[in-house]
């Protein structure tokens, strides 16, 4: 029987050697270190200003998600990265920025900040990033999965007001890098819209 360490070793090697067919099938990553970002939710008719301060903490995560590389999972137990491509920020920071910008765009708060330095925030939003990857089994088009758990805290008494788990997925039109990123944007957009509505309804 193979030991766990022997099973893990090939998984680690995938990210270094790009030895998995699902990753080498991604055809659009020809130029070195192409950088990609995602769009926050927009609200053209959002109210101007608002009341209350909220701090959006950097998302917590672990393992293969704690990087600026674009994660690809050929199978449930394998992890690799899209060749020659990266996010503009590590995934936890990118998610923090998207939530912050989306809440700013939606209005309703006087201030939406990245940290509490020099502030006395009314609320803090904590995020656990659970999924942020494209799943690409051999012979199938990639499907992007984004999942996070949100926790809203009222700072006056450090009470947890609410917790919500959000999940979304989007199929890529092809295994090309641009199409995979578009699918990331579509799945993340679903999450951001739900997150903003949830925060606004519970921050009171």
From TrEMBL:
Residues 36-192 form the ABC-type transport auxiliary lipoprotein component domain. It comes from the Bacteria. The keyword Metal-binding does not apply. Residues 1-29 form the signal peptide. It holds the Pfam family ABC_trans_aux. This is ABC transporter. Gene3D superfamilies: ABC-type transport auxiliary lipoprotein component. Keywords: Signal. InterPro entries: ABC_trans_aux.
